UniProtKB/TrEMBL annotation:
Domain of life: Bacteria
InterPro entries cross-referenced by the UniProt entry: NAD(P)-bd_dom, NAD(P)-bd_dom_sf
Residue ranges annotated for the NAD(P)-binding domain, each copy included: 8-190
SUPFAM superfamilies xrefs: NAD(P)-binding Rossmann-fold domains
Record's protein name: Uncharacterized conserved protein YbjT, contains NAD(P)-binding and DUF2867 domains
Taxonomy of the source species: Bacteria, Pseudomonadati, Bacteroidota, Flavobacteriia, Flavobacteriales
Cited Pfam families: NAD_binding_10
Amino acid sequence: MEKILIVGATGSTGKRIIEILNNSQSFEPVAMIRKEEQKSIFDDMEVQSVLADLEQDDFSAALKGIKKVIFTAGSGSKTGPDKTTEVDEKGAIKIIDAAKKAKVKKFIMLSAMDADEPSKHKELEHYLEAKAKADEHLRNSGLNYTIIRPGRLTDDMGMGRVKLATKLDEAGEIARDDVAFLLIMSLADPLVKNMTFEAIEGEEPIKSAMIELSKG
């Protein structure tokens, strides 16, 4: 089984990914945690965890034996510019570089819709700019990657149906459940390889939407 490091494991989307992967026959999730007291959450799930912080500089221990990375960490759109830069931009860039050094096979990034047009959303501009810089660094890293830019995240039950495009012509929302499945499906090597795309709730089943998108 391939070991998958989940960065942002204690967040809502990260936890959902771990729950799903924990029942997989192909992948073994490893939760990256910032505090020792968070370990018990994953011990109860019988999931391995590693202690590391995006504000540190050495991720070699966290990446030992890891084949792929799913990055779901984020300071949140309501966080101030300094913290956003530290986590969403600098932290992401540091672990991308560490993943390349560790010869990770694929890096999957949870970004944000309109990260390529931060000025469209003045109240989110600093957040989207940080996401955009991390995305660009990943694209230029030489790693195999997938960058998913979802619309507004909701805690609704996922319907398993989405609308995907490299650039959508409409805004929208999407359940965290469905985003988790998009991120997990991206672990499959042929799918959405070296692609950046936006995602909102739609009519097409996730798997067929991703296959269609991969065909270009």
